[in-house]
Amino acid sequence: MASLQDDHDEVVERFEPTSGRVSGWMTVVLTAVLAVAGVAYADEGFPLWVAAAGVLVGVLAWAVMLRPALWVTTEHLVMQNLGETLHIRLAAIEEMAVRQVLVVRAADRRFVSTVVGRTWRKALTSRHRPGGLAGDAALAPTEGMHYADFVENRLYDLVDTARRRAEIRPGSPEQLALPGAVRREPAWVPLGLISAALLLLVLSLVL
Q1: 149: region left, alpha or beta (phi > 0 left; psi from -120 to 50 alpha)
Q2: Angstrom distance (rounded) from CA 202 to CA 130
Q3: Is 161 helix (H, G, I), strand (E, B) or coil?
Q4: Quick one: DSSP state of residue 100?
Q5: Calpha distance 85→30 (Å, rounded)
Q6: Which residue ranges traverse the bilayer (predicted)?
């Protein structure tokens, strides 16, 4: 993803997904086998629409469960989602919390990443750190802590550092007025693959 950053906005840290990868890969493999079987046994009456549906499910599984990614650059929190990649300026982040998904508020808007999350039970019992606090030693990342807790605290540290560097207070008019708070990049590859798979399914039902 080097093309997404210039020399002054290099990747600082990447975060691993907390769920969905195993089931995602299993779905992709199973649907690939189904699609291959559909082509191999088409002359023996194997329904083409079943193979086409398998392709669509496989593409959706990849786009929804495997493609999403989360990383931080010098200046931005980057959320790679199904249909777009979001570049959120760290100093512009107003609030943030890891619940069942990561929720970030910036430029008076709400953004979500499914890469990092807690179970429903863990989300109910976790401690929430207000967006404006910095240097909370009790919540600093420690060895053996839950990975979602580590990610949340690491993101707070990076956001706090960016705010101090920009001399911005959370919730201040200066923060809301920061230029380039959020940049969106459409994800043409997954959107194109999903559209093509849908078209293939429709054609298989018509023919």
Answers
A1: alpha
A2: 49
A3: helix
A4: S
A5: 28
A6: 22-42, 48-66, 187-206
Give DSSP secondary structure letters for 63-126: IIIIS-EEEEESSEEEEE-SSEEEEEEGGGEEEEEESSSEEEEETTEEEEESSS---HHHHHHS
Query: 15: helix, coil or strand?
Result: strand
pTM of the full structure? 0.82
pLDDT in tens, 157-176: 999 999 999 999 988 999 98
Both structure tokens of 30: 């199973």
> Can you tell me which residue has the tokens 């690939």?
32
Q: Would strands 182-186 and 84-89 be described as parallel, antiparallel, or unpaired?
A: antiparallel
Helices (H), the chain: 21-40, 48-61, 120-125, 147-166, 173-176, 188-206
- Residue 118: pLDDT above 90? no
Tell me the C-alpha distance between 32 and 30, whole Å: 5
Question: In degrees, to the nearest 5, what angle opens at C-alpha 134 toward C-alphas 126 and 161?
Answer: 120
Domain boundaries, the chain: 21-66+187-206, 69-186
Residue 96 is predicted with a pLDDT of 93
Structure tokens given for 64: 């929804």
3-class DSSP assignment, residue 86? strand
Q: Residue 135's CB: how many other CB atoms inside 10 A?
A: 9
Classify residue 43 as exposed, middle or buried by CB count within 10 Å of its CB (0-12, 13-18, 19+). Answer: exposed
